[in-house]
Design brief:
Radius of gyration: 18 Å
CATH architecture: 3-Layer(aba) Sandwich
Number of domains: 1
Order of helices and strands: EEEHEEHEHHHHEHEHEEHHH
Number of helices: 11
Number of strands: 10
Low-confidence stretches: 252-275
Helix content: 25-40%
Mean pLDDT: 84
Length: 284
């Protein structure tokens, strides 16, 4: 379904975020992407749908080389790729239904989307997805009236309503408490199984990754240092991925991850405009 070949990303500052990353994801396969902060996980995910432009290398979605597409062709290819963001990237003042329907923008003409005139089939599709993620009772609520877990479910529904073949999931539990994190991960993995969706999940919590994701790719300094089963994440392997520091801090198993969240989550608020820009591009 997805093939990444010798992917490099070097920023204008000279920093190399990715150094020759290669792996593939089969149809229906879901993989976890783990590694320390700055390892290149978010960059890798954003290179797949070219929210970040790779410096070199090739990315194939099925038979289509994403890295070779012009803007028009890329817009069409992005319909096949759903994206779920850490900070949800919802439009706060819009309702749950309106946020979910924004996932159909790639299929809708500009004026129709401007006036929010969506085909009846899209509306029915949105209702079905909202029922599946347990939000049917909240369709008319504004996004800013929802809890974190509910917001992430809206983000999941918005990605699913695109009817994608591949899901890119960027830190879906980083702003959630441990119980809600498990619920969200269970939902994502169940939906991938039901729909035969391939998925890459960038996840900071090793315990959650081991619980829900059978295959793990470990990144360190932009390079893959582990690609194998979750059961193979021994202390030695985790040290190879995270370094000699106490990698157990990456896990919710040693305590309530929510205790560590505020500083981490707060650090991303300054980048909310990036999420908005990403979302706008990803659905078009």
């Amino acid at each position: 379904m997805l093939r990444i070949e010798a992917l490099h990303k070097r920023y204008k500052t000279g920093d190399a975020a990715l150094r020759g990353v290669s792996f593939s994801v089969a149809s229906g396969e879901i993989i976890g992407l783990i590694g320390p902060s700055g390892a290149g996980k978010s960059t890798l995910i954003r290179c797949v749908n070219r929210l970040v432009e790779p410096t070199s290398g090739k990315i194939f979605l099925g038979d289509v080389e994403l890295t070779a597409l012009n803007k028009t062709a890329l817009r069409q290819a992005r319909r096949r790729i759903g994206m779920i963001f850490q900070e949800y990237a919802l439009v706060e003042r819009l309702t749950v239904m309106e946020n979910v329907l924004s996932g159909r923008l790639g299929y809708t003409g500009f004026w129709a989307s401007y006036f929010r005139r969506f085909p009846q089939a899209d509306i029915e599709r949105a209702f079905a997805v909202l029922e599946r993620v347990g939000l049917l009772d909240h369709v008319d609520k504004r996004a800013d009236a929802l809890s974190g877990g509910q917001r992430q479910r809206v983000g999941i529904a918005r990605a699913l309503v695109q009817e994608p073949e591949l899901l890119l999931v960027d830190e879906p539990t980083a702003s959630l408490d441990p119980k809600t994190s498990r619920q969200v991960m269970r939902l994502i993995t169940e939906l991938c199984a039901e729909r035969r969706l391939a998925a890459i999940v960038n996840i900071h919590d090793v315990a959650l990754a081991q619980m829900f994701l059978p295959r793990i790719v470990g990144l360190r300094a932009g390079e893959i240092v582990y690609d194998g089963p979750a059961s193979g994440l021994t202390p030695e392997v985790l040290t190879r991925i995270y370094g000699e520091e106490d990698w157990s801090k990456t896990s919710a198993a040693s305590g309530d991850a929510a205790d560590e969240e505020p500083a981490h989550a707060h650090g991303h608020h300054a980048h909310d405009h990036h999420h908005d820009r990403d979302m706008s591009a990803a659905v078009r």
